Predict the 3D structure of the following.
Amino acid sequence: MPAYKRILLKLSGEVLAGSATFGIDADKVRALSTEVAEVAATGVQIGVVVGGGNIFRGVAAAARNMDRVTADHMGMLATVINSLALSDALEQIGIPTRVMSAIEMHQVAEPYIRRRAIRHLEKGRIVIFAAGTSNPYFSTDTAATLRALEIKADIIAKATRVDGVYDKDPLKFTDAVQYAEITYLDVLQQGLGVMDATSIAMCRDNKLPILVFNLNTRGNIMRMAMGETVGPVIR
C-alpha cells in the first residue's frame, strides 16, 4: 500500500547523464523510467522536476562570461530537453505523460497551468514540469518546491547519489557524518547542500517534508513510495 497519494520527484540533470560527464545516457533514462513506471502502476500520482546540469555543463565554459539572466534561460531550456527525453522513455513503455513548460513553447510542450496539471495527475498521467519557474535566479530545486506546493504533493522526494544527508560531501570526505534525523533549520544553519536555501525555507514555511534518498540503489523509488526508510525526512 503506497504511503503517499501524490509525490513530487526531484531529479538532477546529472542523473540522466549516467557515468558520462554530460549529455543523456539512453540506458540510464530507460532504467529510471522503468522504476518510475512501477511506482505509477501502484496508483501513486507522480510529478517530476528534472534539472539541466547534464546539458548545460557542455556549454558552461561559454556561459561563464554571459549575463546571468541569459545563462539561466539557457539552463531552463536544458531542462526542457531532459523532460522530453524522460517523457519519451516513459511513453515507450506505455506510461502516459505530459511535459508542462513554464516557458511557453506550444509545439514542444503544454504551457504550465496548475489546474490542468492536477487534472493530468488525477487521470494517472506522469507530469514532468520543465523550464523551472521561467524566472532567472531561481534553481530547479525552488521550481520543484513551488510545483509541489501548487499541486498539493504529500512530499518532495529528492533523489541524490548518496544514502541520505551528511554534514559534508561523503563522495569527497571519508569522515562525513550521516544524519539520522534532521530539520529544515539544521539544513539552513549548517548550509547543507541538500537543496538550495530558498527551497528549504519554502518547505519549512509550508510544512512540506523532503525525503532524501539514493537514486543509484535499484528499487529505492518504490521503497520510498511505500513508506520504507530509504533516507531521512527533513521536517
User: Anything to note?
Assistant: The CA atoms of residues 33 and 90 lie 5 Å apart. The first strand starts at residue 6 and ends at 11. The chain has a mean pLDDT of 94.
